[in-house]
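Sat 14:20. Reprocessing the chain from the morning session after the first attempt stalled halfway. Input below, unchanged.
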Amino acid sequence: MTMQLTTPTAEEVTPTSVTPVRTLARRIGVRQTLSNSLTLAWRNVTQLKHSPEKLMDVTLMPIVFLVLFLYVFGGVVAGSTHAYLEQLLPGLVGQMAMFATMTLGTALCDDIHKGVFDRFRSLPIARSAPLIGAVIGDSLRFCVVMVVLTGFGSALGFRFHTGPLDIVAAYALAYVFYLAVCWISVLIGLVAPSPETVQGLSMIWTMPLVFGSSVLLANTSTMPGWLQAWVKVNPVSDLADSVRALTIGGPVGDHALITLAWAVGIVIAAFPLALRTYRRRA
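Finished this time. Tokens:
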């Protein structure tokens, strides 16, 4: 028996309709990015709510620094602790704004090592949301340190000599600068090999800026020439001088504008670099 193979004609072939499956990358807009960031910021605030001991440093640090500097340097610098208090507390606003950012990098690095950011990457959220949320959520630390510093300083005798708008402007300026410096802390947290090394790396660049400034001394003319040159270009000096002028009186000059310019420059440089580093590491 011979079998004959025939080739089916075009009419006999029923074409199968195949719809190609495409994975469309949905563009996430600014509104959703902000929403995602606020959601993750609330996560950080909730963590602080359930672990209030994480706020111990920003609660005790301003008290320790205020008492230590006031009663060690007060009589030598200004002749009395009361006179020095009016110079010191506005300067410490700038110092505490710097120090309050250091634990952000540690917490970020710890989350990356625990795999938390791997879970974020699997979610349909903006890539920058975890970083922006961490910065916004950490703002609670800034608020706590400023309330403790101002409240304890007022108990020791500090008084404002300007109007409410000037006072609000002083703390708002410190907050803007704090947000900018947070991105340096974020970058350190992303590049540090372990959470334990973040604190040391943060201290290396923070200490020269804080103590090589006009934070503790409004009059820096007694400093060596090379140190005076550093103080003049130090953005923390401009922040401290701005806060002093806005809280106890005096000309603000260009200090506030220079502080804002530094804040913008830091964000422009650090934010894209931090985002790129996050995409490569997390």
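Residues 10-25 have pLDDT under 50 and may be disordered.
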